[in-house]
């Protein structure tokens, strides 16, 4: 944004837009039933952050049990949910920060710090879930952590990367606002 001379007014909504995409990915991860799935036929197990479903054979009925009965299930859900709520707060703060004509760069650095805290909570939930799930719940066949779990990790990685962008953006305040004279590399003899 700074190096190639893109105008600040044209690029100011890129970071809030990326935060919005992170929020959408977080919603998919929270609502998705594909945290863990059977990899091969017959598909006998499917789990989300909230419940584990299995069926005895190919044509049988799915029976589901809540993961909230386990302490680790509540911990994984709570930590990931706290990270997601912090991400939503950062999204709202970013919209407010970039909507104001005079950009408050210290406010933006605070959003970056809050994104790092959100990433810590999200990663804690994403680590607790597979470790405790695979050790405490019996699994049959070949299982894999699937697409919704991947969306959870994508959200966490976006929180970390956007945290860096929000923290580093105030270092280029003068260049972004156009307060620096351009440097020319031509020198006259």
From TrEMBL:
Protein name (record): p53 apoptosis effector related to PMP-22
Coiled coil (residue ranges): none
TM spans (from-to): 12-32, 77-100, 107-131, 151-172
Gene: Perp_1
Entry similarity comment: Belongs to the TMEM47 family.
Membrane topology qualifier: Multi-pass membrane protein
Keywords: Apoptosis, Cell adhesion, Cell junction, Cell membrane, Cytoplasm, Membrane, Transmembrane, Transmembrane helix
GO CC list: cytoplasm; desmosome; plasma membrane
Subcellular location: Cell junction, Desmosome; Cell membrane; Cytoplasm
Predominant location: other
InterPro entries reported for this sequence: P53_induced, PMP22/EMP/MP20/Claudin
Record bears the keyword Nucleus: no
Organism: Dryoscopus gambensis
Domain of life of the native organism: Eukaryota
GO biological process: apoptotic process; cell-cell adhesion
Keyword Cytoplasm in annotation: yes
